[in-house]
């Protein structure tokens, strides 16, 4: 029984060690590939977007109030 437990612990240690080594190599490989891609194909800096022109809204319009009320009612119904 003692031999079986030592073999189980030995297998567990080697298995977990293999996983830790593999994940460590994976982290370094991913970082290396990220740096390599950044050097090979640098990302272009996008120009800031111009704000879209907003049409002025007539305040106090009865039609606007009716449309907004209908939209709120439709939203709350679902």
Q: Could you characterize what this model shows?
A:
- One of its GO terms (biological process) is sodium ion export across plasma membrane.
- This is Probable oxaloacetate decarboxylase gamma chain.
- The chain has two helices and no strands.
- With 78 residues, the protein is mainly alpha-helical.
- It has a domain of 42 residues.
- It starts with a helix and ends with a helix.
Helix content: over 70%
Largest sheet: none
Helix/strand/pairing class, anyone? mainly alpha
Number of strands: 0
Average pLDDT level: 86
Instruction: Report the radius of gyration as a whole number of Å.
Output: 32 Å
Uncertain runs are: none
What is the number of helical segments per DSSP (H or I, 4+ residues)? Answer: 2
Transmembrane segments: 12-32
Catalytic activity: oxaloacetate + 2 Na(+)(in) + H(+) = pyruvate + 2 Na(+)(out) + CO2
Protein name: Probable oxaloacetate decarboxylase gamma chain
Subunit structure: Heterotrimer of an alpha, a beta and a gamma subunit.
Entry summary:
With 78 residues, the chain is an all-alpha fold. It has helices at 2-40, 62-77.
Q: Which features characterize this protein?
A:
78 residues; mainly alpha; 71% helix
Secondary-structure topology with pairs:
Blueprint: H1 2-40, H2 62-77
